[in-house]
Write a structure and sequence with these properties.
Elements: H1 8-15, E1 21-23, H2 29-32, E2 40-42, H3 47-59, H4 61-74, H5 80-98
Parallel strand pairs: 1-2
Length: 99
């Protein structure tokens, strides 16, 4: 998707340790991926670069595993516990303000 603000399929793949290659579209992936650290960003529409980066991962096991591991670590910030803690802080702050 070119305009998906928070691409769940990307996040789910990263949670499984998949080293993702995605187009650097105006919204979404670039806010989730640090290029060559927890995924790979490719210039939007550059099919040759997309193929090159996928081949790069196929041919470089060490980097493929490192990117996949970093992706898995990245998504931990979206765990149910972390998100629920943030909601609790928000609600508690709201209650404090209105009291």
């Amino acid at each position: 998707s070119r305009y998906e603000g928070f691409p769940m399929a990307l996040l789910e793949a990263m949670a499984c340790g998949v080293p993702c290659v995605t187009y650097d579209c105006p919204f979404g992936p670039r806010s989730m991926i640090t290029n060559m650290r927890n995924g790979i960003l490719v210039e939007e529409g550059d099919k040759k670069e997309m193929v090159d980066k996928i081949n790069y991962l196929i041919e470089n096991e060490k980097n493929r595993k490192k990117i996949g591991t970093n992706a898995r670590k990245y998504v931990l910030q979206y765990s149910q516990k972390n998100i629920m803690d943030k909601w609790n802080i928000l609600f508690n702050n709201c209650l404090t303000i209105t009291s």
